[in-house]
Amino acid sequence: MQDLKLALVQTDLHWEDPTANRSMLEEKIWQLKEHVDVIVLPEMFTTGFTMKAAQHAEGMNLHTSRWMKQMAAQTNAAICGSYIVKENGTFYNRLLWMFPDGTFHTYDKRHLFRMAGEHDVFGAGREKLIVEWKGWKICPLVCYDLRFPVWSRNVANAYDVLIYVANWPQARVKAWSTLLKARAIENISYVVGVNRTGIDGHDIPYNGASACIDFKGDTLWELEDTEGIEVCTLSAEALLQFREKFPAWKDADQFNIQ
User: Which positions of the chain have pLDDT values less than 70?
Assistant: First the structure.
């Protein structure tokens, strides 16, 4: 288990235009000046946070999944982000985790944002995803999941990094920043949050605040209201030493989610 480098892609998005967003993100990814292990894109990175699922949904082996496969292979990095997928007649806000060799995992957003009617359009996920990469165990979740600590609870150090991809509005950015730190502290893990910037098709503003938080709740890196790709390096040694020195995880309540 060596140090892990993540590239956080904080960007404005073209409203409901997957082709333009894939092209824009590809240009940004190629601006990286160093090799990274993981590239993290925002929630619904092909469209912005839209409820027009029928218009923009894709199958699992179409444009966006093929694009992510190409990007992962060319950068030799794992890449993740969510977009709209239709499967067996149901729409999902689905996070795709793509490895450089073309293998992948998926996670369907568990907590659907009812204030925007997401629960009326999309199916909710039922299983949490933990992937292993470069010796690290990584749990990727999506936006509104951040508000629900039981779902993200790190039982027996099941993961080392918690990733949230989001379209989190500026009006509630204080909650975003506060909850990222809370999830890191209570789970004794690194937390990475990647949010978008700009104004969407509903005139809702987003101001980013993407961040890397360490296992003590300290901010390692935070990007304010600007577009960019920043690299955050996570120390394996620091995490393992802290877990050994302060093993609060051994006293955690045991439970099962029904």
Answer: 258
How crowded is residue 52: how many other Cβ atoms within 10 Å of its Cβ?
12
Helix axes 63-75, 18-29, angle to 10 degrees: 0
CA torsion 18→233→243→81, rounded to 10°? 0
Q: 155-168 in b/e burial notation, b at 16+ Cβ within 10 A?
A: eebebbbbbbbbbb
Chain centroid to CA 91: 19
Catalytic residue set: 43, 109, 143
Q: How far apart are CA 250 and CA 254, in angstroms?
A: 10
The fold for domain 4-251 equals Nitrilase/N-carbamoyl-D-aminoacid amidohydrolase (3.60.110)
List the beta strands (DSSP E) in 111-207. Answer: 131-133, 136-142, 161-165, 190-194, 197-199, 205-207
DSSP 254: P
For the question of whether the overall pTM of this predicted structure is more than 0.85, the answer is yes
CA distance 102 to 78: 9
Where exactly are the structural domains of the chain? 4-251
